[in-house]
Amino acid sequence: MGDKAAARRYAQAAFSIARDRNEIPGWRAELGDVATVLSESQLAPVFADPARPVDEKFRLLERVLDVSPLVTNLAKLLVQKGRAADARDVAEAFNQLADEYEGIAHAEVTTAVPLGSDQLQAIESRLSAQLGKKVIASTRVDPGIIGGAIVRVGDRLVDGSIRTRLKMLRRELEGAR
Questions:
Q1: Which one in 9, 76, 82, 96 has a CA-CA gap of 20 to 30 Å to 149?
Q2: pTM of the model
Q3: Distance (Å, rounded) from C-alpha 35 to C-alpha 54?
Q4: Domains plus CATH for the chain?
Q5: For the sheet containing 134-141, what is the strand order?
Q6: CA distances from 25 to 6, 16, 154 (A)
Q7: Cβ contact 145:111 at 8 Å
């Protein structure tokens, strides 16, 4: 498991550069590429191998990565510092910073049945109005909630599922005895 605090520091530095240069979308995409190569590809063990010379790793990086020079420098820094495996955490932390800066929130909507695109769009619009941010929702299906929906945005949770309502009703009825 990587060092999330260190990954956040790298991401903050990268975000500062991207923001100042007005290149946030480009950095998002390129850091995703770096994360894939350094921590998820077949080459990941090569970049993480402390016995392999750093110069050799740099040459390999330059051959396989097609990103801007500043992003390449960040990738080289991660490799040099032995943090290649943390590249995905850096990319995710960068995306969180970019989302905060751009006023984007992510929501997870759990329903008993799959939602149609119109329903999902309506949920995103309503959440956007409530939160004052652009909301991007992902969906999950859990037949166990019976009906309704459970919506999670960050650390906020709104449970409007039938399962939870039935549990609350049961507690009320048991308490009335």
A1: 96
A2: 0.81
A3: 18
A4: 4-100 (1.10.520.20), 103-175 (3.40.30)
A5: 134-141, 104-111, 148-153, 156-161
A6: 22, 13, 22
A7: yes
